[in-house]
């Protein structure tokens, strides 16, 4: 059996204790992450059920909808229960479904922050993340209004998304960075070096697309381990991430109550060292 104790919480930024199994709200938007949720009342019930199930970390973005996802969260959960941490992101233009155009101009970032505060109905954003670095704008310029918002008490902590180590270190010259949200899962580990860097730096690592279980070559192995735990393949993919590093915060998303429950139950699965190593090869 595994000798490693899986920690269930993470202290984000040194002052926000959150459950490592959170919820990502992106799927509570229209097709192409554009427009309202297909079933808005159902989406509100999913958010409420997530919090009732122990989730106290919800990830959203100005770009989801756009704007509509943040308002949905406020409609479903405000006034927020004590201890609920809502993270949002800014830095994209969304002209249409499935269209994502980085926009790191300071005025745009400033508008994103002010808009998120209003839509989420908060005085302070717990975690504001730069959704993408805009190659056309120096990151120092992009982050200047973010640093100003931190100083003004409008943002508590700052994170980055889809960045390398050099970009993290460059951003930190402007404002402290407490989290990194990169694509990472059992089947796609291109950001392994960034994850290892965040572990050393005590920075949270938030993998997006966490439910992917990897290539077909892993299928039989995962199915066997899933059967041993009376679990689904997706649950094993989440359990692997929880065991991979204590600073990993999971934000699996779904618009289904039953799938939400399945995701939350993944937190009860403890892989043995042998199982973890077999999946990691």
UniProtKB/TrEMBL annotation:
CDD domains membership: AKR_AKR13B1
NADP-dependent oxidoreductase domain: residues covered: 20-279
GO cellular component, one term: cytoplasm
The keyword Oxidoreductase is annotated on this UniProt entry: yes
SUPFAM superfamilies associated with the record: NAD(P)-linked oxidoreductase (SSF51430)
Keyword annotations of the record: Oxidoreductase
Molecular function terms, GO-annotated: oxidoreductase activity
Pfam family, one: Aldo_ket_red
Domain of life: Bacteria
Record's protein name: Oxidoreductase
Organism: Paraflavitalea soli
């Amino acid at each position: 059996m595994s000798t490693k104790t899986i920690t269930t919480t993470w202290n984000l930024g040194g002052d926000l204790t959150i459950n490592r199994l959170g919820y990502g709200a992106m799927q509570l938007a229209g097709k192409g992450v554009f427009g309202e949720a297909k079933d808005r009342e159902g989406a509100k019930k999913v958010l409420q059920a997530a919090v009732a199930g122990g989730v106290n970390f919800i990830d959203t973005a100005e770009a989801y909808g756009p704007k509509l996802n943040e308002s949905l969260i406020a409609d479903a959960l405000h006034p927020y229960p004590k201890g609920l941490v809502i993270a949002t992101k800014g830095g994209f233009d969304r002209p249409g479904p499935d269209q994502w155009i980085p926009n790191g101009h300071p005025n745009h970032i400033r508008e994103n922050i002010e808009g998120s505060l209003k839509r989420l109905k908060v005085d302070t954003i717990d975690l504001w993340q730069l959704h993408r670095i805009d190659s056309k704008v120096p990151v120092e310029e992009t982050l200047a209004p973010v640093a100003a918002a931190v100083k003004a008490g409008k943002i508590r902590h700052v994170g980055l998304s889809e960045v390398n180590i050099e970009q993290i270190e460059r951003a930190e010259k402007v404002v402290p960075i407490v989290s990194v949200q990169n694509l990472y899962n059992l089947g796609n580990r291109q950001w392994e070096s960034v994850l290892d860097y965040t572990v050393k730096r005590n920075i949270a690592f938030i993998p997006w697309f966490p439910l992917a279980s990897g290539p077909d070559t892993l299928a039989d192995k995962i199915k066997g381990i899933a059967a041993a735990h009376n679990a689904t393949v997706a649950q094993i993919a989440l359990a692997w991430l929880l065991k991979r590093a204590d600073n990993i915060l999971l934000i699996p998303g779904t618009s289904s109550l039953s799938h939400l429950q399945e995701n939350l139950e993944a937190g009860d699965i403890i892989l043995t060292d042998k199982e973890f190593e077999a999946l990691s090869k």
